[in-house]
Design a protein that fits this description.
Layout: H1 10-13, H2 34-50, E1 57-60, E2 65-66, E3 82-86, E4 96-97, E5 108-112, H3 118-122, H4 124-133, E6 137-141, E7 148-154, E8 157-160, E9 169-171, E10 176-181, E11 184-188, H5 198-221
Parallel strand pairs: 2-4, 5-6
Antiparallel strand pairs: 1-3, 3-5, 6-7, 7-8, 9-10, 10-11
């Protein structure tokens, strides 16, 4: 997978502007609802587990992205509900500070819509992600209506993504599909397999153990000691 790094806006590299320290705390309000919180955590946990061997990305939710020193004087812009930056070091951060991260912006952003934020997510934020961040993949999901839409950056402008036969949208940056499963936004592999979260992995392991125990019992009934099999 190819990671992308984007040029920093002129106001960031302007020598007349003194950048504040990079060790900045996130300045995000609480998630809109418990449903929003669960959705953000589900995306984060499943991707972290799926990419557990990788060290070249950073994923976060409800974390401030500081992209301009002047931005610190404004409270009008909030961070994405979920975002992924590729081609960077996988380590904890208190916030994402663009001028301390080699000018990198998110490669993928997901906003979970609500009545109070929908107009901003579809308007101001979309415009900022397109024109300033240059984020290649932008997705919008409404947890109540289950509406899912996505955009890919083409020649500097967002073009709508077309869903596949299952209604899922392809993220070229993640090499994964995004789709709705049991009322929640989930990741799927290219082959259509659900990317599991921790609870689902535990259930799979438990199911595999049960199958192994049943097989061992059947073998013993046939006079075969399963412990002697290689």
């Amino acid at each position: 997978m190819t990671s992308l790094a984007f040029a920093m806006p002129a106001e960031i590299v302007d020598p007349s502007v003194v950048a504040p320290p990079g060790d900045l705390d996130s300045n995000e309000p609480p998630m809109e609802s418990y449903q929003h919180l669960i959705q953000m955590l589900l995306l984060l946990e499943s991707l972290e587990l799926f990419w557990k061997e990788r060290t070249d990305f950073f994923a976060a939710g409800n974390l401030t992205i500081y992209f301009s020193p002047r931005q610190l004087k404004s409270e009008h812009f909030r961070g994405p509900d979920f975002f992924v930056v590729l081609g960077t070091e996988r380590r904890p951060r208190k916030s994402w500070v663009v001028w301390e991260e080699d000018g990198r912006y998110p490669n993928v952003i997901v906003e979970v819509l609500s009545n109070s934020t929908e107009s901003i997510d579809r308007g101001l934020k979309k415009q900022t992600y397109q024109d300033v961040f240059r984020t290649p993949d932008y997705f919008l999901f409404h947890p109540e209506t289950l509406e899912l839409s996505g955009f890919h950056l083409v020649d500097g402008h967002y073009e709508p993504l077309s869903p596949d036969a299952s209604g899922r949208l392809w993220s070229a940056q993640l090499d994964l599909l995004l789709g709705v499963e049991q009322g929640q936004l989930r990741f799927f592999t290219r082959e259509g397999e659900l990317v599991p979260a921790g609870k689902e992995l535990a259930q799979r392991a438990e199911s595999a153990e049960r199958r192994a125990a049943l097989l061992a019992e059947k073998l013993r009934e046939l006079g075969v000691d399963p412990d002697t099999l290689k």
